[in-house]
Amino acid sequence: EGVRIVDHAEIFADPSVLPVFNSQAIEAQLHRIPGLSDRYLVLNDDTFFRRPATPSTFFHANGIIRLPFSPAQIGLGRPRAEEAAPSSAGKNVRALLEADFGRFIASKFKHVPHPQIRAVAEELEERYAEEVRATTASRFRAPDNINFATALHHHYALFTGRAVPGAFRLRYIDVTAPTAPERLAELEADRSVDTFCLNDVDTNEENAARVDALVRGFLERMFPFPSPWEQS
């Protein structure tokens, strides 16, 4: 088994909208990857496995998803152009699900590999076709986008009996924070976590070189051997 790079043109229902640089648009089309399993994981580019994981880390034996609920919450009020794009996208999902299920969602999700069910994603693409089309046609993030792969997928799976809250062993580190060096050192010595996220929250130009050196050194120590698919 190897790694296959998938071109956006292979998965977008309407390739005429390409190119897009909007992660929310791309995530809304991942379930269309040819040959994709019915159960799969979505990882952001700042998420890593600390140790080998098994399907039971993310799914129950009957295929039900373990959801990585976070104590952080989606803000109140209407979407605003000046707020973070994921906040607006979560609010838009809340409106859709409240209209259909009479449930007011509040929870965000932790920064982990996100378990997915392809059949759920296909249902969502059909049920919320207009919203999915608008998001996938959005070249850059916009206040009217939806968060398909987490807020919508996870809550819809929960409401339709295909997901339950789960527990995850993870570490989240803001690599720009003053405590980042100490937290990275602790993570390096800690083998009890399954995954970790190194989130670049807001690196300014003045600190970019320092943060880059910090993260690069940490990753070289954590993963000293290249995989068979890495280029030199």
UniProtKB/TrEMBL annotation:
Residues 110-157 form the Stealth protein CR3 conserved region domain. Residues 186-231 form the Stealth protein CR4 conserved region domain. InterPro entries: Stealth, Stealth_CR2, Stealth_CR3, Stealth_CR4. GO terms for biological process: polysaccharide biosynthetic process. Residues 2-64 form the Stealth protein CR2 conserved region domain. Keywords: Exopolysaccharide synthesis, Transferase. Pfam families: Stealth_CR2, Stealth_CR3, Stealth_CR4. It comes from the Bacteria. This is Sugar phosphotransferase. It comes from Glycomyces terrestris. The lineage of its organism: Bacteria, Bacillati, Actinomycetota, Actinomycetes, Glycomycetales.
